[in-house]
């Protein structure tokens, strides 16, 4: 069971994979915006909160829009989705 779980983790954990596939980038984007949402809902806000999450979110979004996914998002306006 340990070997199965370890293999599953290593092949699925988004941060362990350096590939930038459609699914992987969507996972990164979801992970980081959720982290930011969760932190903003905390009553004890701290200085510097979300610095890393924002950096990684923007990095993943840039890759998503610049790579082959431009074809998938032709005519898609990110601002209209907010």
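^ Assign residues to that structure.
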């Amino acid at each position: 069971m340990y070997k199965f779980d370890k293999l599953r983790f290593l092949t699925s954990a988004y941060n362990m994979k350096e590939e930038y596939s459609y699914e992987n980038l969507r996972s990164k984007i979801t992970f980081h915006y959720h982290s930011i949402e969760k932190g903003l809902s905390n009553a004890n806000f701290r200085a510097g909160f979300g610095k890393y999450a924002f950096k990684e979110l923007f990095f993943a979004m840039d890759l998503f829009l610049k790579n082959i996914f431009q074809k998938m998002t032709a005519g898609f306006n990110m601002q209209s989705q907010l």
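Residues 13 and 40 are 25 Å apart (CA to CA).
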